[in-house]
């Protein structure tokens, strides 16, 4: 994933141990407003992609069970609102 990634594979709670839930609200749409920029979840059995779509809310636990990355944009602009909820 090195050259394709905008945001390298990571786990949110590694950087901020108090993060419990991560969310992303997409404000525009893949394929219409931009190319690339997919959210990728990484698993030993294969990666799962989330295509950004205006109004789509993605929520996931921030721990090691959800390593993820964001693909580099190829064109356009991607707008999203990221939020993290704390456990303490």
Short description:
The chain is mostly beta strands and 88 residues long. Helices cover 5% and strands 49% of the residues. The chain contains one helix and nine strands.
Q: Please report the total strand number as a whole number.
A: 9
Strand content: over 45%
Q: How far apart lie the N and C ends?
A: 33 Å
Number of helices: 1
In spatial order, strands of the major sheet run 1-7-4-5
- Major sheet: 4 strands, antiparallel
By secondary-structure content and strand pairing, the structural class works out as mainly beta
| Topology pattern, helix = H, strand = E | EHEEEEEEEE
Averaged pLDDT: 92
Q: Shape from CA axes? A: globular
Measured as a percent range, the helix fraction is under 10%
What is the C-alpha radius of gyration, as a whole number of Å? 13 Å
The low-confidence parts are none
Structural features, described:
This protein is mainly β and 88 residues long. It has one helix and nine strands. The strands form three sheets. The chain has a four-stranded antiparallel β-sheet, with no helix packed on it. The protein has a three-stranded antiparallel β-sheet with strand order 6-2-9, with no helix packed on it. Strands 3-8 form a two-stranded antiparallel ribbon. Strand 4 and strand 5 form a beta hairpin. The longest helix is centred in the first third of the chain and has 4 residues, at 12-15.
């Amino acid at each position: 994933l090195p050259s394709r990634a905008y945001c390298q594979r990571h786990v949110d709670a590694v950087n901020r141990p108090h993060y419990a839930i991560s969310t992303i609200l997409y404000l525009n749409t893949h394929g219409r407003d931009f190319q690339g920029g997919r959210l990728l979840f990484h698993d030993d059995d294969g990666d799962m992609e989330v295509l950004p779509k205006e109004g789509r809310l993605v929520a996931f636990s921030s721990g090691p069970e959800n390593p993820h990355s964001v693909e580099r944009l190829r064109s356009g602009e991607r707008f999203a609102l990221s939020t993290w909820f704390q456990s303490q």
